[in-house]
Amino acid sequence: MDNSNQKPGGTPNKLMELMMLNVFQKHGITSESVKEKLSEEQKKLILDLLEELKLHTDALVSKTNSQKTESN
Known about the structure:
Structural class: mainly alpha
Order of helices and strands: HHH
Helix content: over 70%
Shape: elongated
Strand content: under 5%
Radius of gyration: 15 Å
Number of helices: 3
């Protein structure tokens, strides 16, 4: 997976990437098999899913950080 869009301190992004890699590995999906078997529409759906997961992860981290700040 591409790390070019990660922010410094992008731990949530790394966690999401690790989880996705584990899911792919569990189901025997490799980058070669993806390139050969997925249609462009399927590739776009996966990228959209990853972007949505990233947004949810960022929102959760922001919420957690603001709660920590408020409690201090």
